Amino acid sequence: MHAYGPVPSRRFGRSVGISPIPEKTCSYSCIYCQLGRTSRMTIARQHFFPVDDILADIERVVEANKHTIDYLTLVGDGEPTLSADLGDIIHACKTRFPYKVGVITNGSLLWMENVRNELSEADVVNISMVTSDPDVFKGMHRPHKGLSFDKIREGIQLFAATFPGRIWAEVMLVDNVNTDSGDLRELRKFLDKIQPSRTYIMTPTRPPAESWVRIPQPEKILMALSVCGGETVTQLEHGSFGLDEFKTAEEALSEISRRHPLRLNQARTIEAYFAQRSLDRLIAEGKFRIVDYQHHKYVLPSEFMFGTSSAGRG
Ligand code: SF4
User: What is the pTM of this model?
Assistant: First the structure.
């Protein structure tokens, strides 16, 4: 299933997620990633799936939820710009549906001219920008070895110079990794060159790939906000999930949780919608597990790979 939702998004409202790439395919393996460690690390753009299949999935989700959608969002189970069909998908979304189109990208491939061109029809492109320090960048994103910090920054600047839509900057804060005030001041200079229409100061609110990742204390979040400007997105999202296109609770839990980790109470609400008690059985069968994080219980697919020691830190 390439389209799902709508899911409640802290930035995109009720958002239909569109994933044009296979599971956990990314150019980074971020320490804070809510999808666990990257299993398919690549910077090679590919035609992963037939575009018609992706569009048929979008059509189906839109048809079931057409009055409750704010955005169609290309987000993927990793980095969506790895799809060589990105431009065609965005173009089809813009011509077939009356919704805004957003893309959530780590920005690592914007040095490629075709990626910049393919994104040009999107309404909003949300780009990760977390640090001005190449070593912090490397420790936080653990990028593909074919990527360079300078090239990525240059790509983001080239994109910002010509993109007709809106750019949103996403500054994900991890305590004691990118919370140094000097680094953030340098980051602000870069943000001033990009001139995003919104800057979101975010924290890892869902279980991160590395268990030692911590949400900064409120005073550090406020410091980052005063240095970088923008607004904070540090609360958990609220709202219901679009479930009409799913036939069973198991299908809904599987499809949603591998893109959008669910809190236990959200998973129970989904079960109740279908009047089916599937979750306990799925946990007993080893398909899901419960993880405690920041005073909440999360239901995660068992295949997500999470680190449990501090060995990879740095
Ligand atoms: S947070 Fe985004 S960019 Fe980082 S590893 Fe996860 S999917 Fe890739």
Answer: 0.84
